[in-house]
Structure formats: structure tokens, C-alpha cells
Write a structure and sequence with these properties.
The complex is a heterotrimer of chains A (about 525), B (about 325) and C (about 300). Chain A is of the alpha+beta class and about 525 residues long. Helix content of chain A is about 35%, strand content about 20%. Chain A is built from 18 helices and 20 strands. The interface between B and C is large, with 60 and 53 residues.
């Protein structure tokens, strides 16, 4: 034992030597440390990345032809495309883009129209999760994107697709322009470079990917060949910290600059502190309950309306979510074109009971409510919201049995139209109202309406019309009609639209959260 | 003796085969659909079908098992439905972190547990013994996840003496990847700062993970020592006049180590299990977290891969322990 | 190696079993303070669990939202959690849940394991080989990993947790009872029973089993503690009981964010786990000392 002592002493000194300075390791002024739960990062290849964390990185490392900047999701801004025109070519739409001159990839090679065509075709060809955005929403096939000359791209869309939707889709990571030479150089087994692009980057964005250690961190460094204003901070480390309390602590102690998953409770605690501030971010998600319109007595419109009239929405937003959400009751979230602020429902037990009587179920009924396990957007557990709904509906005589189900099984049951009431969330894939309108209204789209067995030809027709309507004013009217109709007829109880919260060090400025769930780090300074 | 060895190895192979069957069986009892989870809400029908075909999920179960077994012999553990990568690649990436953590915890358990057990036996029924036994009892009953939270709360949040979750500070660049074991890689690269930092990050998780094994080993060592200390030949040695210290060191220790060895082997299993919880709390990118994430997503190729690898490692360790045990203890005879 | 086992220490008339448990208990307890202490804790735990509905000052799922995260006070002796639920009540109800889990696990794995072990040890030969292989297969899996895989496959719920844990802990019973059977089957009284013409099954159940109980009872006590720990661990990572069930592991998990600020939220359920498991481990230790000093060696 005595012989061990010097060893122990040595060990102890090793461990504590760089010890007790100010903060454990405050990041340098030219490194931005962003902590979040990035366990969903599967791939950083823009043709594959579909999860939030992957998108976050891809949006900083690649550029798209057009983009929405900051929180504004209605005005398209030019990125790699300097200008664009939409032409009605009779049997199809032709969208022509003129590329910005002088743009280079991080590899040094110039951006050409061929590169754009390659990138779009690549997405369709690889056919991974995000491919449907081009294939189904825009109706594209490989070859529909052509290089007219080295700086002009022409895309041919079928008449059934909406050019506006296509442009919105292009702002998403799928529209990222990848260096074709680099991709081909690292091709293996016909994968168009996918295995390599999984954790390497070849884009035109303000940053390049330096490294990605799975479940640990992703490091971005400034792209020396960037065509735009150099980012203010040269290095960004996206660190995986799954516990929100640890995230908060790291920002408070200076070990991190931005924390992405702060709960409402933690946000309130931070509000008073000196060196940390809270910033809200909008999300385009909607938390809703789907009612199976073929499951009696939910098949009666009045019963569904009764359920909608029983719930204490304000209570949910105020008490459970601590104000960290917006009460939204229509199917298009705030921030998107076509948002309808109408929110007529609030807990009215008398009205609910009257409706139930009229529908022929005066003594109420029993029903199952399936919810996912774990946390819901807004920082509360799904089960907690379910418990509240359960107690609200009980007042109207409706007995709810909560069935917590792992997401995998829940999706299975829901997609098979076997749910009774299902509480879940929906986020649009692209910032166009059609990303919500069609799934919620069109039975034929085999999406949400289908899962809830809701067949409404009039609603489906409205959704299709609105998607293709080029005139903004007319489009707005159509969406108002659609959302009002679904509000009272549909099988949905839209509960809320969550916000997300960030904790930032006071000195951090210029952080803007795009509701499509990413932020551009080039504007951030500290 | 060598017949015994061969016999043990043969039965190990059989056991591993059984392990693969059991794992496969469990993974296919799955009621949910992992493909949906992997592809997400928006997946279209044809994508799902294509995916299923690509992963061979549309063939009958016995066929799938046969294919799986065939691939296993070639070292192919299938493709993870969640990460879309070969499971073997995933395991290769995450295994070193768990080895580092488990190894450190094991070291803690041995360095703390064995001396504590020995001293406890030598000073039987004195204060040290009582305290040590109480400590070991509580240590064996302590929920690992709470211990981790406590240690983090105390040493990171409150005292700021030790770093928080993760293997390395954010601002430190990891050394070039050679083995995946940060400590080894840092030494190989001559990166003293990374080495120190990695060691500091290792302290809390190793203590958390190691407490249970420390307690078990301490208890075991104590009782084994007691057994031996009171046996006849020890009494004879004492009667012959040998000094107490030598008695202990030479005879008691050697014989007490034998049953302790078995426990050391078994404790490795609890380390692998405990790693799941410890890695969750300390955001340690190891097999435990991978297993958890895979299990939640019903990613059964990954779940099978992890379970299999862990079982294999555990079985090997036990095999080695058994062989050493048989070597040391001539009284061992198996039916 | 071992000779006869205790409990049949009076094996001069082995077929007539001594049944003086009641009278000897008091003597036993005095001899082993460990068993007494452990037994005491377990008793308190069991009584609390059974009486929870009467002891709990509030219903366990009622939310007092305005007082959420309140510190321990007169009305809420252990404080409130993040949804304003009384922690004391939830801990009490949690005791019921964990008691049930423990009992079910012990019964399931005990019955299964003992059956396998006794048959293997008594019948021997091929049967023994096969059964021991199967046992080895289950032994090859570290507990939590196998339990997690099963719980994930069957779905997260307390019932499935019990099945999962039982699947992991039965092998120990098998080994223990097999070892006993191996020794006992050579004993006189067993041979006598065979000579009389009793069937194998009858011998196993009526004569082997009752004499093998000691190590099994000790193991059962440890198993209870183990089951509670594993169940809590599974719930902590999300595979076992689900919120709003007042299971201790779930409560610690839900409260982990508040560890440094409202420490009572995760701490009290964690202390409950610690106390209960310590009780069972103490009891197991004590019983082991009592029932066979020579069995101090673990499995």
C-alpha cells in the first residue's frame, strides 16, 4: 500500500494541474460553441440528411439556388441563383435560373450549371428520405434539370406541380449544390459519393466540415473560397450534449456560447441571470390530436366538435408549456403563407355536452388516446399533455384511456388507420403551406387525412387548387376557405404551435433561427 | 487439462451460437416497424417497400436467420436501419469509448475493492471492517444513474473541479485516430494536453461505473480471505511461528484470489451493463448509448450486433477466468 | 466437496423434516443482526407499500400546478415535482410498484430457474448438458443489455420489464438448485425414497426441493434488490414504466434536470431505491450467515 502512495499523488497532480482556472475551458473568441442533442445526425450528405441536426450542418456548409433568410418564409432571396423566371410552357412549367458568377466550391472549382443539374439529379437518383421532395412534390425525374449553358439552369416541372412549392423545396438542404468532381472522385459502388459525403463536405457555403465524430461533435471551419461576406466567427463546434440542464450550465459557466434545447423552466431561471440571455425561435410544427373518423362515435362531426370544445387550450399553453407556445387551431402554422389565426375553441363543458347530446351520445363514451413516449415539443412530456386532455374530456363525460406507445409502434398503428385518437406532431418538409394543407386535407395523399380516415372531396379539391394558384391574393382566399372548413369539419384538434428556446451568452449577437429548423452561423458574432 | 480446455472452448462456441439464436429471436418479436422510424413520418409507400427489400426484411424469418448466420461468419453484422451504416462500422466507432470507460472502472474496482476486502478481513470486526462492509453494502445497492447525477452535480456543477459530460473538452482537438482509445491515441501523438483532459473526463464516469463492482469485489475478497485465514494450514503456519504479515501475504492472499477471480470475471458483465446507464448520463459516445438508441428505434440489426458483441466479449472473459481458475485450483473437477 | 447442507442438519431422520421455524426465528435474529436489520427494512418497506393508499396524503397523479417544484413543506413533506405532484405520495405508491415488480420477478425466475436446475442436477446426463447449455446462453448476456433488448422488443411497460428482468435472473437459481441437487441425489434419504419406488418427479418436488431451499431463499432476497435496481434503470432510460406512473426510476429520470436546483425531485425516489435495495441485500447477507456459514462464498 505504501508503494502506491507516490503513484496516487502523481495521478492526483496530473488530474488537477490545469485545474482551477476561471471556467474549465472557455472557448476562444474565434470559436463558437453550440451545444445541442445531435443524436439524430445520421449523415451530412445533403441528398440524405433529413434530420434536424444534419440539416443544421448542411445548411451552413452548402448553398442552395434560392433561400429564405432568417424568419421570413415568404420572400425568396437569391443565393447561388441571381435571378429566376417561371414560364408556362403549355404542358409544363419551365423554371430558369441564372447563376451568380464567380462562385467557387470549397475545393476551388467553379460552380457551373452542370453542377446544379448533377446535384438535383443526384438526390432523385439516390432516392433517400428527402428524395420525395423532388420526385413527388415537384414531380421531377432525372434529366428534367438541364444546363442550358454554363451559367443557366432550366428545370421542367409537370403541370400538376406547383412552381412556388418547387422553389420552396429548393431552399431546403435537398437543393444544395455539391461539387460533382469531388463527389465523383470519391465514388464507390455507384453511390455518387454518398459514403464520402456522409462526413465530408464539398459545397459553396460559408463553412466547411472539418470533422464529424458521431454522437460527439461536428466542427465547421470558415470556407476560404466563400463568395459572400466572410463569417464573423471562423470556427463553429456543434457539441453533443443530450441533457438540457448540462447545456444550460455550460452556457452559464462560459463553456458554451449557445444552447439549443432549453426547457421553459430553465428559460425562466436564466431570465434573471447576468451573463446569459434567452432567445425564442419559431417552429413550424403543430401538435395535434387526430381522431379516427371511421371509429364511432368519432365518425359524427358533432362529436369531434364536442371534443374540440372541451379542451383547455389556454391552460395547456399557460400552465404546462409556460407560455412557450402559441395557441393555433388551424392546420397551417404561423409564419407560413396562408396562416389563419382563427381560434374559436376554448373549454366550454356546457357546449360540449350539448353537442354530444345532439349527436346521440348524451352520456359520453370511452376512447383510447395514443401518445408517443418522451418529451413533446415545448419541453413537456407527451404524457403530461395527454393527462391534461384526459382530465378536460372527463368533464364532458368522455373517458379517455392514455396509451403510451413507442414511436415506432405508434407510427405503425397510426399509418394503418388503426388509431382511435392519436396525439402527435407534424412539421412541414418545405416552407410552403401546401406542405401542411395537402396532408391534412387530401385523403388521396395517403398522409394525415388518410390516417384518420377523413374523406372530404371538397377539402381535397381546395388544397389542390390553392397549391397551384399563382396569384397570391387568390391563394390566400383559398387557404382561408380550406382552413375554416377543416377547423369545424375535420378530424383534428390542433393544440398548439411550439416555440423553441435558446440560451445564449450575452455577448453573442446575430443568431437567427430559421423556422425550418436551422440557423446560419455566418451572421453570428460574439 | 488440455481436454478440459478444448471442452470449454467447444461449449463456448455452442453457447455463442445459442446467443445468436436468442438475440435474433428477440429482435424479431418486435411488434413495431423499425423501417417507419428510420424513414420518418413522411416516407412514401414505395420507399418503405424498397427499404425492406434492401434489408431483406421481406423474407421469412428462418431464412433471415440463415442469411444472418452466414454473414456473421464473414464478420458482416448487417446494416443498421437507423444509421444506414454497417453495424460493424458503428461498433468499431463506439466500442473503444466503452472499453476505455469499462477498463477504467474495472481498474477503480480492483484498486479500491481488493485492498478494502483484504484489510477488512485482516481487521475483522474492528471499525474499519464495519465501515467497509457498510460501504460495500450501500455501494452494491446504489442506483448507478443516481450516483452519476450526484457526482456530476457535486464535482462539475457545484465545485467545478472536474469537467462535465463528454470525453474531451470542446476546445481541445482530439488526437489523430489510431485505436479509438483517447488515452492511447494521445500518448501515441505525444499530446499531453489531450491526455490530461481525457483523463479528467474519465474520472467521474469511471467512479460511477466502478462503484458497484468495487463493492462486490470488496465483499468477495473479504469473505474469501476470511475463509482462508481460518483454515487449518494457516493455523499451522502461525503455530510454526511465521510472522502474521507473511502468513497473510504468502498463503492467504494467493488462495483467496481464486474465488475472487471468478467474481472479477462476472463483474465485467455488470460493467458492460452499467455502462448503458453511465454513458447516458455522461454523454459518453460508447456502445451503451448506441445500444439504447438502437433499442428505442427498434433497429434490430444494431441491437443484435451490440448484444452479440457484448455477449461474446463477456463469454471470452469468463472463459479465460475459468481456465485460470482451473489452473490455480487443483480441486476443480467438473461433472 | 461440501457434505451435507444445513436445514437437513438433523438428517438422521431425513424424511421427517424439522418444522420448528417459528420458534427458532427469534434465536436466529439475535444471532445475526444483519438479518434483523435487513428484515426490518424490508418489513417497513413492504408494509408501507401495502398501506400506501392510506398513508399517502395526496393522490399520486394529481397536479397542483401552481405549487410545482415547491420545496418540502408541511402539506408536501417531500416537496413537489415538475408537474406539481406530491413526491411523498408518489414515493409511497412507487413502493407498491417496485414491490410487485420484485415479487413477480422472484417468483417467475425462481420457479423457472429452480425447475431447470433441479431437473438438470437430479436427472443428469444428456438432460443436464442441454439444460446447462441453455443456462449458459442466458448467462452470457449482461443483465441490462438483455433486459433492454427484450423490453424494447415487447414495448416499454412495467409488465414487459418484469418479463425482461426475469429472463435475465433465472439462470442463477438454476445453477444454485442444480448444485444442491447434485449433492443431494447421492444422499441416503433420496436413495431410500427411490428404493421405496417413488417416482422421480415426486422425489424432486417432495424431497429434493425442500432441502435445497436455503441458498434459494438467500438468492431470492438478493434477486428482489436486483430486480428493483434493474427495473429502475430500465425506467430511467425509458424502457420500463412510463410517465405518469409513479415508479421510482421514472421519477429520478423525470427529475434529473432539477438535480442542482430543486434537488428533492430526483433525490427522494433515488433514496427510496437505495433503502429498499439495501434492505434486501442486508437481509440476504443475514440469511446467508444464518442458513449456512459455509455458504458465504457467492454463487
Amino acid at each position: 500500500m505504501r508503494k502506491l502512495m507516490p503513484v496516487l499523488l502523481l495521478l492526483a497532480s496530473l488530474l488537477t494541474s490545469p485545474a482551477i482556472g476561471p471556467g474549465l475551458a472557455a472557448p476562444a473568441a474565434n470559436t463558437l460553441v453550440y451545444v445541442a442533442d445531435i443524436s439524430d445526425m445520421i449523415s451530412l450528405d445533403p441528398a440524405v440528411a433529413y434530420e434536424f441536426s444534419g440539416v443544421l450542418v448542411a445548411q451552413n456548409v452548402y448553398d442552395t439556388l434560392v433561400a429564405f433568410e432568417g424568419e421570413n418564409l415568404t420572400t425568396l432571396k437569391p443565393r447561388l441563383a441571381q435571378s429566376w423566371t417561371i414560364r408556362d410552357a403549355g404542358s409544363a412549367w419551365n423554371v430558369t435560373f441564372k447563376l451568380r458568377p464567380g462562385v467557387k466550391f470549397s475545393t476551388g472549382r467553379p460552380v457551373t450549371a452542370e453542377a446544379v443539374a448533377f446535384s438535383i439529379d443526384r438526390v432523385i437518383g439516390l432516392n433517400k428520405s428527402p428524395a420525395f421532395l423532388f420526385k413527388d412534390v415537384a414531380g421531377l425525374k432525372e434529366g428534367d434539370t438541364r444546363a442550358v449553358d454554363s451559367s443557366t439552369v432550366e428545370v421542367t416541372l409537370p403541370k400538376t406541380a406547383s412552381p412556388q412549392a418547387f422553389l420552396s423545396v429548393l431552399t431546403f438542404t435537398v437543393g444544395a449544390v455539391v461539387d460533382p468532381e469531388e463527389a465523383k472522385a470519391h465514388e464507390s459502388g455507384g453511390d455518387r459519393g454518398e459514403a464520402w459525403l456522409r462526413n465530408h463536405s464539398a459545397g459553396t457555403g460559408p463553412y466547411m466540415l472539418e470533422r464529424w465524430d458521431t454522437e460527439s461533435r461536428a466542427v465547421l471551419v470558415a470556407n476560404p473560397n466563400y463568395w459572400g461576406t466572410k463569417p464573423k466567427i471562423a470556427r463553429v463546434v456543434i457539441q453533443h450534449v443530450p441533457e438540457s440542464s448540462t447545456q444550460k450550465f455550460m452556457v452559464e459557466s462560459g463553456d458554451a456560447d449557445i444552447a439549443a434545447n432549453i426547457t421553459p423552466e430553465q428559460a425562466r431561471e436564466i431570465a434573471g441571470k447576468g451573463n446569459v440571455k434567452v432567445q425564442k425561435g419559431r417552429l413550424l410544427q403543430l401538435v395535434y390530436i387526430g381522431m379516427n373518423a371511421k371509429h364511432p362515435p368519432l365518425d359524427k362531426a358533432k362529436v369531434r366538435e364536442a371534443i374540440r370544445s372541451s379542451i383547455d387550450y389556454d391552460g395547456i399553453v399557460r400552465s404546462l408549456l409556460r407560455g412557450e407556445a402559441r395557441k393555433v387551431q388551424t392546420i397551417i402554422p404561423e409564419g407560413l403563407f396562408g396562416f389563419n389565426a382563427s381560434a374559436p375553441f376554448q373549454a366550454n363543458v356546457a357546449k360540449a355536452k350539448a353537442l354530444l347530446r345532439e349527436a346521440g351520445v348524451p352520456r359520453g363514451f370511452a376512447v383510447d388516446l395514443m401518445v408517443p413516449t418522451g418529451p413533446a415539443p415545448g419541453g413537456v412530456r407527451w404524457a403530461d399533455i395527454a393527462a391534461k386532455v384526459q382530465s378536460d374530456l372527463a368533464k364532458a363525460g368522455i373517458k379517455v384511456t392514455i396509451k403510451e406507445t413507442a414511436q415506432a409502434q405508434l407510427l405503425n398503428i397510426y399509418r394503418a388507420q388503426k388509431g382511435q385518437m392519436v396525439m402527435i406532431l407534424w412539421g412541414p418538409d418545405f416552407p410552403d403551406p401546401d406542405g401542411n394543407a395537402t396532408p391534412f386535407s387530401d385523403y388521396g395523399a395517403k398522409s394525415i387525412a388518410w390516417r384518420n380516415a377523413y374523406e372530404d372531396a371538397a377539402a381535397a379539391k381546395l388544397a389542390k387548387q390553392a397549391a397551384l394558384e399563382p396569384d397570391s391574393a387568390k391563394r390566400r382566399v383559398l387557404y382561408k376557405q380550406l382552413t375554416d372548413r377543416i377547423l369545424h369539419q375535420g378530424p383534428y384538434v390542433i393544440l398548439y404551435q411550439p416555440t423553441t428556446r435558446f440560451a445564449l451568452r450575452k455577448s453573442v449577437a446575430g443568431f437567427v433561427w430559421n423556422p425550418m429548423a436551422f440557423a446560419e452561423f455566418r451572421t453570428v458574432s460574439k | 487439462m488440455s481436454r478440459y480446455v478444448l471442452g470449454r472452448i467447444a461449449s463456448t462456441v455452442l453457447v455463442l451460437l445459442g446467443v445468436s439464436v436468442l438475440t435474433f429471436f428477440i429482435a424479431h418479436v418486435v411488434p413495431g416497424d423499425p423501417v417507419l422510424v428510420a424513414l420518418g413520418e413522411h416516407a412514401r409507400e414505395e420507399q418503405i417497400v424498397a427499404y425492406r427489400r434492401a434489408y431483406g426484411l421481406d423474407r421469412p424469418v428462418p431464412v433471415q436467420y440463415a442469411v444472418y448466420l452466414g454473414r456473421l461468419t464473414r464478420g458482416d453484422l448487417g446494416i443498421s436501419i437507423r444509421t444506414r451504416r454497417p453495424v460493424a462500422d458503428d461498433l468499431q466507432e463506439f466500442l473503444p469509448a466503452t472499453i476505455e470507460l469499462s477498463g477504467a472502472a474495472w481498474l477503480v474496482a480492483l484498486l479500491l475493492g481488493i485492498p478494502a476486502g483484504i484489510l477488512s478481513a485482516v481487521f475483522k470486526d474492528r471499525i474499519f471492517d464495519h465501515l467497509s462492509r457498510l460501504g460495500a453494502l450501500i455501494g452494491a445497492s446504489f442506483p448507478v444513474f443516481w450516483l452519476g447525477l450526484l457526482l456530476l452535480g457535486a464535482f462539475y456543477y457545484r465545485l467545478r473541479w472536474l469537467p462535465g459530460p463528454g470525453r474531451l473538452d470542446v476546445v481541445i482537438s482530439p488526437p489523430p485516430l489510431r485505436t479509438g482509445l483517447l488515452l492511447v491515441d494521445a500518448v501515441l501523438a505525444g499530446d499531453g494536453e489531450a491526455l490530461r483532459n481525457a483523463l479528467r473526463h474519465l474520472v467521474l464516469p469511471a467512479l460511477t461505473l466502478g462503484l458497484f463492482s468495487t463493492a462486490v469485489i470488496a465483499r468477495m475478497t473479504r469473505s474469501a480471505m476470511l475463509e482462508v485465514l481460518f483454515q487449518d494450514y494457516i493455523r499451522t503456519a502461525r503455530a510454526k511461528g511465521l510472522r502474521e504479515g507473511r502468513v497473510v501475504a504468502l498463503h492467504a492472499l494467493k488462495n483467496a484470489m481464486i474465488p475472487t477471480l471468478t467474481i472479477i470475471g462476472i463483474s465485467f458483465g455488470s460493467l458492460l451493463s452499467g455502462a448503458v446507464l453511465t454513458e447516458t448520463i455522461f454523454a459518453w459516445p460508447g456502445l451503451g448509448r448506441y445500444a439504447t438508441a438502437s433499442a428505442i428505434s427498434l433497429d434490430f440489426p444494431a441491437v443484435m450486433g451490440v448484444t452479440l458483441v457484448v455477449a461474446v466479449v463477456y463469454t471470452q472473459v469468463n472463459l479465460v477466468v475459468d481456465l485460470i481458475y482451473a489452473r490455480l485450483d487443483p480441486r476443480v473437477r467438473y461433472e | 466437496m461440501r457434505g451435507s447442507i444445513p436445514g437437513s442438519a438433523t438428517s438422521s431422520h431425513p424424511i421427517i423434516q424439522p418444522r420448528t421455524r417459528r420458534g427458532e426465528v427469534a434465536r436466529y435474529l439475535r444471532r445475526s443482526p444483519l438479518a434483523a436489520a435487513g428484515g426490518g427494512i424490508v418489513l417497513v418497506y413492504a408494509l408501507t407499500a401495502i398501506a400506501a393508499p392510506f398513508l399517502a396524503p395526496h393522490p399520486p397523479i394529481t397536479q397542483f400546478l401552481e405549487d410545482r417544484l415547491g420545496p418540502p413543506s408541511e402539506t408536501f413533506p417531500l416537496g413537489l415535482d415538475q408537474l406539481g405532484r406530491d413526491i411523498l405520495s408518489r414515493v409511497l405508491y412507487g413502493a407498491r410498484l417496485s414491490l410487485v415488480v420484485g415479487l413477480v420477478v422472484v417468483v417467475m425466475s425462481g420457479v423457472l430457474g429452480t425447475t431447470v436446475g433441479v431437473v438438470a442436477g437430479f436427472v443428469g446426463g444428456r438432460v443436464d448438458d442441454i439444460l446447462m447449455r441453455v443456462t449458459d446462453i442466458f448467462f452470457a448476456f449482461p443483465a441490462l443489455i438483455l433486459a433492454m433488448a427484450i423490453a424494447a422488443a415487447l414495448g416499454p411497460s412495467l409488465t414487459n420489464t418484469m418479463i425482461a428482468i426475469a429472463t435475465v435472473t433465472w439462470p442463477v437459481y438454476a445453477r444454485l438448485s442444480r448444485a444442491q441437487a447434485l449433492v443431494l441425489r447421492r444422499q441416503e434419504f433420496i436413495e431410500a425414497a427411490r428404493a421405496i419406488g417413488l417416482s422421480d418427479a415426486r422425489i424432486m418436488v417432495r424431497h429434493l426441493l425442500p432441502n435445497s431451499l436455503s441458498p434459494l431463499i438467500v438468492q431470492a432476497s438478493f434477486n428482489m434488490g436486483e430486480a428493483i435496481l434493474i427495473a429502475a434503470g430500465l425506467s430511467f432510460i425509458g424502457f420500463g414504466a412510463q410517465p405518469p406512473t409513479p415508479e421510482w426510476g421514472v421519477m429520478v429520470s423525470e427529475g434529473r434536470d432539477y438535480m442542482t436546483t430543486q434537488w428533492w425531485v430526483p433525490t427522494f425516489p433515488a433514496l427510496a431505491i437505495l433503502t429498499a435495495v439495501t434492505g434486501f441485500n442486508l437481509l440476504g447477507d443475514g440469511l446467508r450467515d444464518l442458513l449456512d456459514p459455509r455458504l458465504r462464498r457467492a454463487v
